[in-house]
Amino acid sequence: MARILERLGRLCVRRRRTVFEIWIVVMLGAGVLGLTQGGMFVQQSTLPGTETQKAIDTLRPDFPALAGPTATVVFHSTANASPGDWRVALSVGRSIDNLTKLDRVAFAENPYVQGMGGLKSHDAVVVRVNLKGTMGDVSAGDLDKFNEAVEPARMAGLDVKFGGIVAMILNQPKGGPQEGVGIVLALLVLLLAFGSYLAAGIPILVSLGGMVVAYSMIHFAASLTEVHPTAPMVAAMLGIGAGIDYALFIVTRYRQQLAEGDDVETAVGHAMAHSGHAVVFAGGTVVFAICGLFLSGIAFIGRIGLASAVAVGIMVLAALTLLPAVLGALGTRIDKYRLPRVRPERSSKRWMAWGRHVDRHAWPYAIVATLVLLGLAIPTLSLRFGVMSDSISSPKMASRQAYDIVAKEFGPGVYSPFVVVAKVPGAEKRTKTPVPVLKGPDGLSGLTGPAGAQPSAKPEAPLPKGAPDPNKKPDKQAVLVGEELKQRISEVPGVAYTADPVITGTTATIQVIPSTAPHVEATTDLVHRLRTVEIPAVAKTHPGTAVYLGGENPAIIDLADTVGARMPNVVIAVVGVALLLLIIAFRSIIVPIKAALMNLLSIGASFGVVTAVFQWGWGVHLLGVDQAIPIMSFVPLFMFALIFGLSMDYEVFLLSRIKEEYDRTGDPHESVVVGIGATARLITSAALIMIFVFGSFVPQPDPTVKMMALGLAVAVAVDATIVRLVLVPALMSLLGHANWWWPGRKRPVPPPPPPTPSTPEPQQLELEPVR
Questions:
Q1: Is residue 197 part of a domain?
Q2: Which is nearest to 290 in space by CA: 249, 235, 241, 244?
Q3: Are 674 and 661 spatial neighbours (Cβ–Cβ below 8 Å)?
Q4: What is the C-alpha to C-alpha distance for residues 596 and 397, in angstroms, rounded to an integer?
Q5: What is the pLDDT of residues 195-244, one digit of tens each?
Q6: Does residue 746 sit within a domain?
Q7: Which pLDDT value is given to residue 217?
Q8: How does pLDDT run across 384-433, given as a tens digit for each residue?
């Protein structure tokens, strides 16, 4: 591998013009493809094997219009207009009618038409819209049509907010000046690391070039398959940070080779053979760790991991091709513009002194460092997987504003109702009685209708498209099952309202409104109780009847449960692959096991900080979040894979230098000291870059991105300081030769001390007496 990389580096120096041309063509081509053919980032449309998916599949034959993704449209009063004014209400009605006529709309509620659901009060009107197809079928053009449809209400002076799928489209991931701040801070670290303006700019330039290609490819992939909105943000965080780090290691070695007298081509070749080899191994470890996310069994999680892996892979490719070409073009001028009075090479002596200090006090440092990491990990014991919902979005987002309006006017659980779907066995003889128009105490039909909404007027026109046919004959058993379900569910604590059943053929649907917000633990507990106790009790009395609980909120709870069940598989796979790679790389048993345990401590500490901040609410307001929120279900899964991979990067760079010195001297203590002195500056610089890059994504409004960014930044900070500079050297000092034990291998023999030059004995000069 080293020889191949050396030849590649030399070739890129000699053919640098060709390399530049290829990269420019690739960047321009990928950029144009992403801009012109890129798709929308969307949530996953299916959750195979979950109860929510079974509810959708059961609903589709008799209620096809209600089986698609949903959007929530909220018409809210302003200082100049209110839906309670009949003249303004006419404009709202025209807007709802416009929504119903859209080609992509399968069904739209209408609180002004009896049996069409929806909510209205003096200050707000809320309608839910069911779209055709899946979330992957939604395009940017649909968003424009939604905005055009509600224009009459806006012209009347009302404020219109979108929630659900439409809000997600409105909030496509966008970069901002905060990411630029992260890159500027990374540039400052590089200046201090290199002491040269020109050398510091090279890693930034190379990583940005690679990121253009990676982001464009991810954007284009969104037109071919469903890509989660979090994917480009996670890929950007990891890709930019890893790209700068990899270039940092190679440029550092290149400058060292120049200082030793190599010519430019030879210096690039040697840098690629040594640091380039480490970059390939480190990048490969990250890619393998991230690809372990496919074992989660959830497609969108695997795709986010794939997007991040693609970004890291492209950064490795840029470091191995574009970077050598840039170095070849600059040649010895890389240190031309130096920072005054900055000599980073002098820091190695201070780090070696630190290494000797830790070596002399190994036991105290090992104990204290372990206790600190375990203390930071304590909050993890209370970690609770939560659900993504508009109720925990940033208050600046339209979806959160829509939720706040609905919660204030109608109750916190109204925004995300549950749907109970019952399917009874087919009957040979149907009743000839038409479906009764079942109404709750509020006068609304069984589709929706929490208490407090105004009664709907009688329909004066044919029912809009997608509405259940009131003349379709129901199955008697379906009616019976529906009534029993309603009766039992309405008596469950935590249920605010249970609508009357709506029956078509052998399928009955019931809408259930919880009394609590979608993201709180009580709502999750209610879903589990309905599924495990209340609904099975009714289904048991009707053999052959299948009853499922679905809806947006139960779907996300299904996701959290699936992630929790599959996470051990991901952990075992990622740790196992990393152990195997380290064993192959270092031919040691103890070092890989110790490295895995150290990484787990880093991960536990970062989980603890994220839990304390977001779930416990410690300082959460400083991050732009207005309330304590649970941890998004897939965030710990991602953090584990990413942190484990990144931690292995630093472990490889540190251990490679320590083993090189141990093989040369056979001294397990001095080799650690020399390894710390040679790599500590690089590791701390690389960690600071990662911290600044990750931290720059914390201001993003998406709470999921905030959690990942903070968790990754904390993990890198802990790993590069407490773990790599304290705990690892202390433990390696305590274990001594056992670190490098391998069956059948003998200890290296230290070289003999250099011979001391023999000093000739002074000769006695006989002086003749002076006469």
A1: yes
A2: 235
A3: yes
A4: 40
A5: 778 888 888 899 989 999 998 999 898 888 878 777 888 888 888 888 88
A6: no
A7: 92
A8: 887 777 888 888 888 888 999 999 999 999 988 999 999 988 654 334 43
pLDDT value of position 323: 94
Q: What is the DSSP letter of 737?
A: G
CATH number at residue 396: 1.20.1640.10
Burial environment of residue 334 by CB neighbours within 10 A (0 to 12, 13 to 18, 19 or more)? buried
* Same structural domain, 267 and 397: no
DSSP 3-state helix, strand, coil percentages of the chain (rounded to 5)?
Answer: 60, 10, 30
Please say whether the beta carbons of 153 and 82 come within 8 A.
Answer: no
Let me know whether 230 and 247 are in one domain.
yes
pTM for the full predicted model: 0.79
Give the integer Cα–Cα distance in Å for 179 and 208. 12
Q: Which residues contact 193 (CB under 8 A, 6 or more apart)?
A: 200, 248, 252, 344, 681, 682, 685
Tell me, yes or no, whether 255 and 285 share the same domain.
yes
Residue 166 has pLDDT above 70, yes or no: no
- DSSP-derived letter for residue 258 is H
| Residue 75, phi then psi, degrees to nearest 5 | -100, 120
206 shares its domain with 158: no
Cα-Cα-Cα-Cα dihedral of 252, 254, 256, 259, to 10°? -140
Q: What is the residue-wise DSSP string for 4-20?
A: HHHHHHHHHHHTHHHHH
